[in-house]
Amino acid sequence: MLVHGLWMRGIAMALLAARLRRHGFRTLSPSYPSVRQGLDDNADRLACVLASRHRGRPSHLVGHSLGGVLILHMLARHPGLPVGRIVLLGSPVRGSSLARCLDRKVALRWIVGRSMADWQRQPRPQPPTAHPIALIAGNFALGSACFCREVPKPHDGVVAVCETRLDGQPPPQVLAVSHSGMLISRRVAARVAAFLRSGPG
Question: pTM to 2 decimals?
Answer without folding.
Answer: 0.95
